[in-house]
Design brief:
The complex is a heterodimer of chains A (about 140) and B (about 280). Chain A is of the alpha+beta class and about 140 residues long. Chain A is built from four helices and five strands; from the N terminus they run αββαααβββ. The longest helix of chain A has 11 residues. The N and C termini of chain A lie far apart (about 35 Å). With about 280 residues, chain B is of the alpha/beta class. In chain B, about 15% of the residues lie in helices and about 25% in strands. Chain B has six helices and 14 strands. Chain B has a seven-stranded mixed sheet with strand order 6-5-4-3-2-1-14, with no helix packed on it. In chain B, strands 7-8-9-10-11-12-13 form a seven-stranded mixed sheet, covered by helices on one side. The radius of gyration of chain B is 18 Å and the shape is globular. Classes of the chains: A alpha+beta (about 140), B alpha/beta (about 280). At the A-B interface, α1 of A face α2 of B.
């Protein structure tokens, strides 16, 4: 397999060092890495390269809900929007499903990554469980 | 193509009797394709040792990055003072300022008395594209490598041979505790893969590296492992620390050879060395 862009290599290394859940997708929208904190929160297996998912597969796995309680199309997720439009997206108090079927509230910030010269190299998403009583969505 | 080393020292020139065998000039390598032309890789103080053959119409200077030890020789390079010569300077792109402006920060008062606009040659500046491009009939592949500020490695393919130049590189930083990691997640791997000749950073020994994590350079042991994993055929180590005199380097490389039998040639780079890559012209 061809080497990943340096930007993704370095982000992966940084994600390894933090307890904040972090996932990385490449410019095509394929999942390339998630750290231990992300694996714990999502139920994805920790071994590298096991979860062969793209953005649609990944989002569908957690069945996020829109404000009216219906399932949100994968294309409206922060990940898909950041990939499509090349702009950061923040989502507060999004209801998602846990692996065991229960639900939780989640905040996420998705940032498109651009390499030297402006070429897209992927997106990085930071996400965390939100406190339903925290209206600003800033509580860790 | 012929590859010649003119400066193999890193960070700061280190000219003293104790460094005379390996040399004290900073990074500069020249590449002479069999079809003609000249490619200069970095313009450290070693560029002063590159002799004018007198028959060139164009010179291409490929800069891996703009740290001073890699550009300090620009203002003293004969090619820039030849009005009959076309000189193309290539460097890593930046979102902040174009290459001419960035180099102009050094080549302008008060840091240097001669401005870029005063140079007699026909000067052109280019951002290095990420990927493949052609210079002097050589297919060049460029990519970012792990080093502070945007830094490139170059892979040159011509005359049936491949030469990789990666003078400043810290692959272990990008891989952390996993180093050596899989090829997919190793900075610089694709540029090095299967190279006939590779010039690569090996500034520190293991003890020194522990005190310089994040400085952008390799321990020799990292370089050897990376070259081994990438299937390099002949490794020339480079960017020797300015404090390492000839005796230190002799002992360092004697230990490295004694510690393991590597399936490739290892040459500690020194000024005046020359190598043939691919079929001679």
């Amino acid at each position: 397999m061809a080497q990943e862009p340096l930007e993704l290599i370095l982000f992966r290394q940084a994600a390894e060092a933090v307890d904040t859940p972090v996932i990385l997708f490449d410019a095509k929208g394929d999942l390339v890495y998630y750290n231990e904190a992300a694996a714990t929160l999502t139920g994805l297996p920790l071994e590298d390269n096991v979860a062969h998912l793209d953005v649609v597969d990944f989002v569908t796995r957690f069945r996020p809900l829109a404000e009216d309680g219906t399932e949100m199309p994968a294309g409206e997720s922060g990940l898909a929007q950041a990939l499509r439009h090349g702009r950061p997206v923040h989502k507060s108090h999004l209801r998602v499903h846990n692996p065991d079927g229960t639900q939780r509230y989640q905040n996420s910030t998705t940032v498109p990554l651009r390499g030297a010269g402006g070429a897209p190299v992927g997106v990085v998403q930071f996400f965390w469980t939100a406190d339903p009583s925290d209206e600003d969505g800033d509580a860790p | 193509m012929k590859v010649r080393l003119h400066g193999t020292r890193g960070s700061l020139a280190s000219a003293r009797p104790e460094t005379s065998r390996y040399g004290g000039n900073t990074s500069c390598v020249s590449v002479w394709p069999s079809g003609g032309g000249l490619i200069v890789l970095d313009a450290g103080s070693g560029v002063r040792r590159l002799r004018d053959p007198g028959n060139l119409e164009r010179v291409d200077i490929l800069l891996t990055h703009l740290h001073m030890d890699h550009i300090v020789g620009l203002g003293f390079f004969w090619a820039l003072f030849r009005p009959d010569l076309e000189v193309h300077i290539w460097g890593p792109p930046s979102a902040g300022a174009d290459l001419q402006s960035r180099i102009g920060r050094y080549m302008s008062p008060p840091l240097f008395p001669v401005r870029l606009r005063d140079l007699p040659c026909r000067l052109h500046f280019h951002d290095v594209p990420r990927g493949r491009f052609e210079v002097a009939g050589v297919e060049v592949t460029a990519d970012l490598v792990c080093h502070p500020q945007p830094t490139l490695g170059f892979r040159l393919a011509a005359d049936g041979g491949v030469f990789t130049y990666m003078p400043d590189h810290e692959p272990a930083l990008a891989s952390g505790l996993r180093f050596p990691d899989t090829p997919r997640w190793t900075s610089g791997f694709d540029l090095l893969a299967g190279a006939d000749l590779a010039v690569h950073d090996a500034q520190y020994d293991d003890r020194e590296y522990e005190r310089h994590v994040g400085w952008g350079h390799s321990a020799l042991s990292h370089t050897l492992r990376l070259a081994n994993d990438a299937g390099v055929k002949h490794l020339v180590t480079f960017h020797h620390d300015p404090d390492h005199d000839d005796e230190f380097l002799d002992e360092l490389y004697a230990s490295a050879r004694a510690d393991g039998s590597w399936p490739f040639r290892i040459t500690p780079g020194s000024e005046r060395m020359a190598f043939q890559v691919g079929i001679p012209g």
